[in-house]
Amino acid sequence: MQQIIRVQQVSQRFATASGEFLALDNVSFDIHEGETLSLIGHSGCGKSTLLNLIAGLTRPSSGVLLCDNREITGPGPERAVVFQN
């Protein structure tokens, strides 16, 4: 199966009034054609942060995200996020 998404050693940090907040720490995984991925976790654990990174809406503090072996540097027509209300 062809790899369509690769997340390699991705970390995301945010500056807050009380100091730095580490939302994602060294996350790595691949998604291959035909696979389904489910992100499950409590509020504030980094699910939306990871989706925003894969969609290209934000850049990681460190690490690399690839879609079809091309680095994700911004939004693209092959990726989308649908937010629930």
Automatic annotation (TrEMBL):
Molecular function via GO: ATP binding; ATP hydrolysis activity
Q: Mind listing the UniProt keywords for this protein, alphabetically?
A: ATP-binding, Nucleotide-binding, Transport
ABC transporter domain span: 24-74
Cited Gene3D superfamilies: P-loop containing nucleotide triphosphate hydrolases
SUPFAM superfamilies noted in UniProt: P-loop containing nucleoside triphosphate hydrolases (SSF52540)
| UniProt signal peptide | none
The family this protein is said to belong to: Belongs to the ABC transporter superfamily.
Protein name per its UniProtKB record? ATP-binding cassette domain-containing protein
